[in-house]
Structures are given as C-alpha cells and as structure tokens.
Write a structure and sequence with these properties.
Blueprint lengths: L1 E4 L11 E5 L4 E5 L8 H5 L12 E5 L5 H4 L2 H6 L5 E4 L1 H15 L8 H5 L2 E4 L11 E4 L2 E7 L7 E12 L5 E8 L28 E5 L14 H18 L4 E4 L5 H17 L12 E6 L1 H13 L16 H5 L3 H12 L4 E3 L2 E5 L4 H10 L2 E4 L7 H10 L6 E4 L8 H10 L9 E4 L1 H4 L5 H9 L11 E6 L3 H17 L7 E6 L5 E2 L4 E2 L5 H12 L3 H11 L1
Parallel strand pairs: 3-4, 4-5, 5-6, 10-11, 11-19, 12-16, 12-17, 13-15, 13-16, 17-18, 19-20
Antiparallel strand pairs: 1-2, 1-21, 2-3, 7-8, 8-9, 9-10, 14-15, 21-22
The protein binds zinc ion (2 copies).
Organism: Marinobacter flavimaris
GO molecular function: hydrolase activity; RNA endonuclease activity
InterPro entries: Beta_Casp, MBL, Metallo-B-lactamas, RibonucZ/Hydroxyglut_hydro
Length: about 550
C-alpha cells in the first residue's frame, strides 16, 4: 500500500490524497478538492491530474466543502467511472455546492458532469459509524463522525499485510484521514448543531491530520456557548431595540447560516424565560435569510438533523441542543424543512423568512427585517454584496462577522476600516464573532485528536503522523507541539513514532519509507546536521561558490 499527497500540501485547499493498493490493483482518492485563493493557486485546478482518472476506482469523501470535493466533476469529465463514498448528508450538500460551482465561468466542468457522479451513501440502512465496508480483496474502509460540518466524517482505510498475528490471521494496517477537524468535544459541545467528533483510532498505523489552526490556541472565552449567545443578544438589543437599526450578518451558505438561525431560535427561547424580556413583549424578532443556496441547504439540514443511526442515537445532532433551544431534533428539522421550501417560520418571539431574488427583494427585506443573514460570506458577490453597500452606510446598523474573510475581500475592507480608530468610518458598527463560530479545531483540539484515545489504549499502536492542510507556520508550529506533547508520555496518550509534513512523494505504507529516496531539501538538512552547519553557513558557502 502506498500514499501520495496530491493536494493540501502547500496551504489549506485542494485536499486530495492518492492511495495505491497493489495487492488488489486498486487506486483510490481521499477527497478531490478545488484549490482556492490567489490566481496562482487557482491555476492548479486546470493542471493535469497526476493520476489517470479512469484508473481510480473510488473517491472517499470526508465532507462537502468545495476545497475537498470541488474537482469531482472534472474527475468524471476526464474518465473517472468509480463511486464516491460518503455520508448521505455530504452527498446531498455536495450536489448543491457543485451545481453552484458548475455555474461559475472559470471552472472546467458543467452541470451534466455533476449529474454523472456516481454516489455511494455509506449510511443508507442499518448504519453505525466505523462499519467496515469492503473495497477490494484485503482492502476496506470505515467512516467516523467529525464535528466540522453536517455530514463530515473521518476516513480510515485498512489493508491486509503479509504478516500474521498469533492465531495465523493476516495482520491489518490502517491509515486514518482526519478530514477537517471540528471544535466539539465530549465535555464541551459549544457550537450550535453538531455532536462531538468521536475520534480515537487507537490502532491506526498512520494518521493524516489537518493543521489549519495548528499554530493557534483559541481564547477559552470563545469556546463557551453562553458567551456567544450573550454577544449576539447584546448586538440585537443595542442595534434593533436601542437604535432602531438592522443587523447584517454575511454568512457562508453551508452550515454557518443554519448555525446562526439556530442561535436565533435559542436567543428567542432564552428571552421567553427572562423576567424582563427584551423583545418578546413588544414583537417577534424578524430574521431574513437572503441566500438561494443557503435556503436550499436548509432542506438538507431538515432531512438529516434528526437522522438516527442503528443504535437509535442521533447521527449528528448536538445532544445539548434540544434543552438549549427548547426543541427536539425533529422539531428543529421541521423548521429547516419549512425554510428549505421557502416558507416563513413563526416561533414564539421569532420569525424567520427566506428571501429569494435580487437586490430589489433584498431592499424589501431590509424594510421589514431586523436581521438579515446573506451570502456570500466575504461580501464579494451575491446578496451580501448589495446589503453591505446599503446597510453598511448607516451608523444605526451593525455588521456581525461569523466567518473567515480573506484580505482584499469587500467584507474585510469594510471591517478593517470600521475597526480602525484612525479611519473616518461613519457607517455601520462591526461586531466580530467569527472566533465564536470557527468550524476548525484550534491547536489544543488538534492535539487532542491525535493523543486522546479516550481509554481505548489496549489496541494502541505506535503511530506515524502526517501533517497536511495548513500554512507553513501552522504546520511547523503544530509539528513542534506534537513533539512536545509526545515527550510528556502521558499514560493514556497515543504513542507517536514519527511526525512527517505531508509532501508530494510516494510513501510506502508497508515499509514506512519514501519510494523515491529523500527529497533534496531533506538531504541538505541531513548533510547540514552531520557537518554541523547552520543555514547562514550554507548561504555563505553558496555565495562563495557563485
Ligand atoms: Zn471543511
Ligand atoms: Zn478543509
């Protein structure tokens, strides 16, 4: 068995890992994502695949974000005829996001390529997480839930080796791909919707771990659900009932918009139990959802939020949520189903209404609504662009950030100016809440993902870690943090034998070695170490030679 990391090795996008199981002559991919960001990065979306799409038998998909599934239609266009294995929720979300992506000019595929994807939902009937699915002789896969977004899962691929255990049975080895790691854990499910990610794969020989926030330890205050709700509540009170203004929330269509709606349901529920409610007595808070895609996605949330696995437990739903919002999973799912059908939902103290159409409909919405949730999340296009221009002008209004905005985006420019005390900003206030809503675990959570076996230490093996899906500083800081934690040798921690930064070379998972010998920079590092040279010495040497 061999692995080659094709994407997400320089940066956080374009996730794609290529596996070759020679014993059964099977080639598969874990994720097939689009490169996002600068022009140079996006150019990679049009480069030739390093593999022959027709020879790939399976794609195992961790979740529906475009940087993990966005090149699937191109893969199909270029000859892939195999199946995409993922959860039903991931399939349904991916279909909508890929359809949206197919409409964009700069992509190499059209809707009919999206329609040709052959999906295999892993959770159709009698499903439990970690159920072994056979891919070929001596090759299997199992999925385990992750709390990143609806439908997200980790993927563990296992293969038979030529070694045998004590009883003569062939020994299995496995490599587990984290996908994107969410924030929820057993002791603190502070984000609205998802159950904790149940993570330990104690007998994994290899763990591939993302490192988006590998260098960041988040403020614990931001990991408290009540703090997030209090910040939201303050903004509503000050803006809507204090100044008679509007709240504008730019949001990603997938998952974030649905989380924000859920928080407003919670806010209304909390309000109802207050002695002096801020808005219940007067009138319901009116929320507009202005995003065709987010509205369609609500339907998928309606379908899966109350889904249960064979044990009878919710497949995804945060166990703490029903008590917070005063609704069970079925009731919340019904809210999303209604919204998904484009219908207004009226609850005690709260009305939520999807708005379709362009800027005129948007203007009508900003007449009647107190809160406008709109996409795209960075305000560069879609209804959010229009609302930023209109609502952003008025100092009575407040813009709440709920997600990452890249430098240079319209949203980021507005926020930077509004928060700069030296600027002449006269428009809407800004309340930053993106750190409350991040869907990516911070360094603490990532370390927990690797080391915390939750007591399953009996079958523990020494594990090799591959770090991918991060910027350079995130990866190196994370590598150091892993090494430090490994040195502590806590009794219930996983044992680590090696930490590698994922690179583009073939790695033989049976021998534990790179196929094509060490990379030049690794050779240089080794030589420097042997000769006791520093980077400065090498620089001087090079200058001397040239
Ligand atoms: Zn993701
Ligand atoms: Zn990702």
């Amino acid at each position: 068995m061999k692995v080659k990391f094709v994407g997400a090795i320089d940066g956080v996008t374009g996730s794609c890992s290529w596996l070759k199981h020679e014993a059964s002559n099977t080639q598969l991919l874990v994720d097939c994502g689009m490169h996002q960001g600068t022009h140079d990065t996006q150019f990679k979306n049009h480069e030739r695949f390093p593999f022959r799409p027709a020879e790939i038998k399976y794609v195992l998909l961790t979740h529906a974000h475009i940087d993990h599934c966005g090149l699937l239609p191109r893969l199909v266009k270029e000859g892939f005829r195999g199946h995409v294995y993922c959860t039903s929720a991931t399939r349904d979300v991916a279909k909508l996001l890929l359809a949206d992506s197919a409409r964009q000019q700069n992509n190499d595929y059209k809707q009919h390529h999206v329609d040709q994807i052959k999906w295999h939902a892993i959770d159709q009937d009698d499903f439990s997480w970690r159920k072994m699915l056979r891919l070929a002789d001596g090759l299997s896969v199992n999925f385990m839930r992750s709390s990143h977004v609806l439908g997200a899962a980790m993927v563990s691929v296992a293969w038979q080796t030529s070694e045998t255990d004590g009883s003569g049975k062939p020994l299995l080895k496995s490599i587990c791909f984290s996908g994107d790691i969410g924030c929820q854990d057993k002791t603190n499910c502070y984000l609205p919707l998802m159950k904790d990610g149940f993570e330990p794969f104690p007998n994994a020989d290899y763990l591939v771990v993302e490192s988006t926030y590998g260098a960041t330890v988040r403020n614990p205050e931001h990991k408290v659900a009540q703090n997030r709700l209090a910040a939201l509540s303050d903004a509503v009170e000050r803006t809507v009932f204090g100044k008679g203004g509007k709240i504008f929330i730019p949001s990603f269509s997938f998952h974030r918009a649905q989380e924000i709606i859920t928080d407003f349901i919670w806010l209304a529920e909390e309000e109802a139990s207050e002695i002096e409610p801020m808005f219940h007595e007067r009138r319901p808070l009116r929320v507009a959802l202005h995003s065709a895609l987010a509205t369609k996605l609500c339907k998928v949330f309606g379908k899966y939020l109350s889904a249960r696995i064979s044990s009878g437990k919710y497949q995804y739903l945060n166990n703490e949520l029903p008590e917070r919002i005063g609704m069970n999973g079925d009731q919340l799912a019904k809210v999303f189903t209604e919204l998904g059908a484009g219908r207004k939902v009226a609850l005690p103290g709260l009305e939520v209404e999807p708005v379709s159409g362009g800027s005129q409909d948007g203007d009508r919405a900003s007449d009647w609504a107190d809160v406008i949730i709109a996409s795209a999340g960075m305000c560069d296009h879609g209804p959010a662009k229009h609302h930023l221009e209109e609502l952003g002008k008025d100092s009575k209004n407040t813009l709440i950030t709920t997600g990452f905005m890249s430098a240079g985006s319209a949203g980021k420019r507005f926020i930077s100016k509004a928060l700069d005390p030296m600027s002449d900003h006269t428009g809407a206030d800004v309340v930053e809440m993106s750190h409350y809503y991040s869907a990516h675990g911070d360094q603490t959570k990532l370390l927990d993902h690797i080391f915390n076996l939750e007591g399953y230490t009996a079958s523990m093996r020494e594990t090799v870690i591959f770090i991918n899906h991060g910027e350079d500083n995130g990866k190196t800081a994370f590598k150091e943090a892993i090494a430090n934690r490994a040195r502590e040798i806590k009794p219930n921690d996983r044992r680590i034998s090696e930490i590698q930064l994922a690179n583009g070379q073939w790695f033989n998972l049976d021998t534990g070695r790179y196929e094509d010998g060490p990379r030049p920079e690794e050779e240089l590092k080794k030589a420097m170490l042997e000769k006791g040279l520093s980077a400065d010495d090498v620089k001087k040497l090079i200058e001397h030679v040239s």
